[in-house]
Amino acid sequence: MILRLIVRSFIDTAGPVGSRTLAKHYPLGLSPASIRNTMSDLEELGYLRHPYTSAGRMPTQLGYRAFVDELMDMPELTVPEKRLLKAKLDQLMGDTDELFRQSSRLLGRMSNLFGVVLSPRLSTGVLERLEVVPLSSSRVMIVISVRSGLVKTIIFEMEVTFKRRDLDRIVAILNERLSGLRLEEIRRSCARRTRDLDDDRTGIVRLILSESAMLFSEPAEGRLSHGGAQQLLTQPEFQETEDVRRLIELIENEGYIVQLFEEQHTEPSAALGQAVVSIGSENSDEKAEKYSIVTAQYQVGETVGTVGILGPMRMDYERVVALVENMAMLLNNPFLDTPS
């Protein structure tokens, strides 16, 4: 009970919590001396630490972990907040880019932390159709359509000398052999599946084979939407210039943030939409050991994306978990829902 109150008080005030504060503000039925003894025991066990400038205590990483795993209440947003989230997202159904941008900004604004939405991993999607569109005598566009409405387009330089009927024939054969397969499977096996098409006059098969890693993988950038960096920088943990510099370097590195958030789900321990909380050194990289990251996965058709929030270890875990889980639930299959 005392550990729970200290964690909550420290989250609210960002200041060390003393025994007199607990005795004065909470009906514990314990004397300040008994509370001090308990706090000393918790410190010996590694749940609290004692700043040398203060008689109060503050949670350690272990203390936050115990709070998240065993002591915090069931996370829940208020009914008006749930309605606000749903109403905002309903307005954006059909515009996936804007949906992800606004979702991350909502997470940042409602948590005063750094909100992140990663668009679904394209390589986990199932190919619905492949199209080849000649743009000029020297350029073609290949369009990869994935079930659930995701589309990837890439423009290639190549000499366009083929006839339309030859192009239609080879594209039809490719769709017959590749449609219904996951993109990551196509990337691994397209050479084997097209080895008998050496009579292709268009050069499209050769192009697809040579560029398969680019065509059937995640894009190098563009999956990350984020919001709330300004709110995060107002937190007391970022008063020192060096702390601000390190945080900015971290959140401006798109590839790093994508990897950091997706690595929270390398083990299939959490169900879809269930929050995973990573605290301090539990994060996959030492650059992030001063932060906590809360993530959940959402599903669009057969592809999976990630939503999450990054902030200092002193974050309101109950509220952040509730925000992340509600956002993941609302983003599940948005292209299959109709706005209410």
CATH level-4 homologous superfamily of the largest domain: GAF domain
Quickly count the helices. Answer: 14
Structural class computed from helices and strand pairing? alpha+beta
- Radius of gyration equals 25 Å
Strand content: 15-25%
The span between the termini is 43 Å
Number of E-type strands: 10
Described by its quaternary structure, the protein is single chain
The structural domain count equals: 3
CATH class of the largest domain: Alpha Beta
Instruction: Report the mean per-residue pLDDT as an integer.
Output: 89
Largest sheet: 5 strands, antiparallel
- CATH level-3 fold name of the largest domain: Beta-Lactamase
Protein architecture, described:
The protein has helices at 2-13, 19-25, 32-44, 61-71, 79-90, 96-111, 164-178, 183-193, 204-210, 212-215, 229-233, 241-251, 254-262, 317-331, and strands at 48-49, 58-59, 114-118, 127-134, 139-146, 151-157, 224-227, 276-279, 291-300, 303-312. The protein is elongated and about 90 Å long. It folds into three domains: 2-71, Winged helix-like DNA-binding domain superfamily/Winged helix DNA-binding domain (Arc Repressor Mutant, subunit A, Orthogonal Bundle); 79-121 and 223-336, Beta-Lactamase (2-Layer Sandwich), CATH 3.30.450; 123-215, Heat-inducible transcription repressor hrca homolog, domain 3 (Enolase-like, domain 1), CATH 3.30.390. Strand 9 and strand 10 (303-312) form a beta hairpin. The longest helix has 16 residues, at 96-111. The model is unreliable at 336-340 (pLDDT under 50). The chain starts with a helix and ends in a 9-residue tail after the last helix. It contains 14 helices and ten strands. Helix 2 (19-25) crosses helix 3 and helix 6 runs antiparallel to helix 14. The protein is α+β, with helices and mostly antiparallel strands and 340 residues long. The strands form three sheets. A five-stranded antiparallel beta sheet has the order 7-3-10-9-8, with helices on both faces. It has a three-stranded antiparallel beta sheet with strand order 4-5-6. 44% of the residues lie in helices and 18% in strands.
